[in-house]
Amino acid sequence: MKNTRPDPSNPPKLLDQLRARIRTMHYSIRTEEVYTDWVRRFILFHRKRHPQNMGVAEVEAFLSYLANERHVSSSTQNQAKAALLFLYKQVLNIDLPRLENITNPKPSQHLPVVLTPIGLAFGFDVRAVRSCEAAGLTC
Fold it and tell me: What range(s) does the Core-binding (CB) domain occupy (predicted)?
């Protein structure tokens, strides 16, 4: 049987430590996958520097990059921020000061679609609405 005790001379890699901590805290498997991916992207963005050797400035730079260059939504940026804060606080035991110099993504420019009561009554059937209008009804 294989020895399952950790070898003190060969500590687990950072992403393995992250996964273990997430599992210990009973987060979902999807959260584990997403947080691991964001931490991996963060490390690659900073040319494979270890997060232990980085701080607030690097976290802010990465989150601002996501907003400015990658044009991610606010919820995506918040997810990346949550993953990095989890890494620093729960895995590395480092309390980061408040992140204040982050560029937030631009708000969405999508306009809501307004439906008329007749459009709702026909269940969004465009042909029925057009025939309604053709009959001289207000649709």
Answer: 12-92
Is the CB of residue 89 less than 8 Å from the CB of residue 109?
A: no
Question: What CA–CA distance (Å, rounded) separates 139 from 133?
Answer: 6
Which residue, among 43, 45, 63, has the nearest Cα to 53 in the 3D structure? 43
Phi, psi of 114 (to 5 degrees): -100, 125
pTM of the model as a whole: 0.72
| All domains of the chain in start order, with CATH | 14-101 (1.10.150.130)
pLDDT tens-digit map of 23-73 = 999 999 999 999 999 999 999 999 999 999 999 999 999 999 999 999 999
> Do residues 18 and 59 make contact, with C-beta atoms less than 8 angstroms apart?
no
